[in-house]
Amino acid sequence: MAEGANAVEAALAGGTVHELFVTERAAAQHAGLLDAAREAGVAVSPITDRAADGLSETVTPQGIVAVCALLDRPLEEAVTPAAKLVVMLVDVADPGNAGTVIRVADAAGADAVVLAGDTVDPHNGKCVRAAAGSLFHLPIARVRDVAAALAACSAAGLRTFAAHGYAEAELDRVDLAVSTAWVFGNEAHGLPPDVLDRTDLAVRIPLYGRAESLNLATAAAVCVYTSAMAARR
């Protein structure tokens, strides 16, 4: 379920929408979206405000909800030798964090996002909302076997960097102008030792102030954008 005009617009552009539900108020506000849906052969069904409340997981529903196809792709389709920047989440539990990182990856021009291990389902409503349409912009792969996901990145020619708060290597001293897969771990526990051992290099973000750490989404934004900017320089 993609809720809200931004997510629905991205889903329509990606050709993944099966049906669109819209209230009278939302239909008047987003007439262009409805026209695009009908032109694409998508069924548009009017619903009441009460029905919209039932479909929505938000406090103030926008009144427009799309039922979409599942988005995850096989690992070999998402991570290819053409990839220059891939983001991998390992055992990330919070859907808001996962969705925000997907949005960051999209904004930074990443080629794919891999959700490995016990990472939350990207189709979770909170994840879809946090991704703000980016879920429909780049390939998303889900794989239970973390070792297989890392091996696929290496086989595609990507250097695997693990974000780790206790690493010796600091972000501003690492050559990031290479094809890279960034690996981020669980919000509370980080990456397990066996995963760290399988990556090419563990990297930490230097903290210049008194904060003990950065949260997952912020750390991902710093690391992924640092790689993206280094590649473009």
TrEMBL record:
Q: Does the record's keyword annotation contain Iron-sulfur? A: no
Name listed for the protein in its UniProt record: RNA methyltransferase
Any single GO CC term annotated in Swiss-Prot or TrEMBL for this entry: cytoplasm
Taxon lineage? Bacteria, Bacillati, Actinomycetota, Actinomycetes, Pseudonocardiales
Origin organism is: Amycolatopsis balhimycina DSM 5908
Domain RNA 2-O ribose methyltransferase substrate binding residues, every copy: 1-74
Q: Say which family it is in.
A: Belongs to the class IV-like SAM-binding methyltransferase superfamily. RNA methyltransferase TrmH family.
Pfam families, sorted: SpoU_methylase, SpoU_sub_bind
Q: Name one GO molecular function term.
A: RNA binding
